[in-house]
Each structure stands twice: as structure tokens, then as C-alpha cells.
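Bit of a strange request maybe. I'm writing a small parser for C-alpha cell strings and I need a real example to test against, not something I typed by hand. Could someone generate the C-alpha cells for this chain?
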Amino acid sequence: MKAEGALYLLPVWLGDEGGTELLPPANIAIAEHVKLFFCENERTARRMLRRMSKTIDLDAIELHLLNKDSTAAEITEFGILLGTRDAAIISEAGMPCIADPGARLVAEAHRRGISVVPLTGPSSLLLALAASGMNGQHFTFHGYLPRETAQRKQQIKKLEQEAQRTGGAQLFIETPYRNDALLADLLSTCTGNSRLCLAIDLEQPGGSAITRSVAAWRKSVPALGKRPCVFILSGEG
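Reply from user aminoacidic:
Good idea to test on real output. This should exercise your parser:
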């Protein structure tokens, strides 16, 4: 086990299905050892810890909310706590600090000279890219695209042009209830020869990662619904 004061980045499942076989045993041991956690949602964090190990005493751990609304003063206070003992960041799903507010606490840890230890575990972005058949040596993650339709279509066109110009894969995500609206904008904006990967419910029953040309997707448009999805756009294959 690492010395006191380390900040672990503790990955969790990408969905509701799956047991400890999907996580490295070393991660479970760290979860059982750490008593100080930072999370976006306390209920989710407690559920994830219970899935990891029935031996974790949820009444004995200390949980602090770390989300997009956390203030600079709160981050500083959290940094002071980091120096007293081992701690861990838990995301809502997958790898902490990737498309996740935990990065602010990691930056604070580095400012204080505290060891940051990323742990192996699920990352929907890397899983999607690996399964897409697109450029794994040149890619960019853009987070969430604009909500407003006209601005979103404008951004989609810029990403497509970048993909065509550089050959790089363009990754982005959306709040699940807006998945179908984003897909509709992609299919109406992009040229038919561009490639689009839809990576849905990865590591979950019925999950898939499928890459087709935009023209092929137009012939058979899937209903994504409210399932977690990673979108990857690339130039002509």
C-alpha cells in the first residue's frame, strides 16, 4: 500500500451490470483501505463502494462532494485534507478526472506535492476508440457539444473538417436524453463518406461499438435512447 497522503483515482463500472471481476483486485484492496473519498454524488459513491466490497464500513468513511459547482475555497479545503491520509476520487462512471470535475482536486494535489496514483479500470472513451477502427494515434476529445441546434451543427461541421484535414478521430459525448437529437444533427450535417462510431453501453449487456459511414447510418438510423454513448467522427476510411 502507498504511503499516507496519496490520492488514488479509483475507476468504477460504466453501468449497473457487472461485478468485481471487471475491476483489478488491487483496486478493491485500496477501496477497502481508504477512508476519505471525493465524489460527485454521495448515493452513487456508496453504491459503488458496496459493489466493490461488502467489508467496507460505509458508516466509517468520509465522503465529500466534488462537482462542477465546487468552489475554489472548497478545493483548497479538500487539499488540506489530502495531506493527512490516503484518499480516493470516485467518478459517477468509469475513470475519474476524464470528462469529470475531479481534475481540479488532482491539480490541487500536485500543487501540494501529494502523490497522485491513477488506477487501471474502465474508461468509456478509450474503450470506444479502441473498438472504432479509427486513428488511435491522433485523436481529440471535445466533451459536450453546444446544446443549441444551430451552434451544434456548426461545431459538427468544424469537427468533420478537422477529421478530414488531419485524419484524427474526433470524440465527444452527450447527456443521454439528448443522444438522438445529436445523432440526427450528425446525420444531417456530415457528408456521407465520413465515418461515425456509436459506442453504446460499453461493458454492459447489449452494449456495442459500431462504425459505419454516415451514408450507411442514414439508411438505418438507430434509436439510442437514454443509454450512455460515445460518438467518434472520422474522415473517409
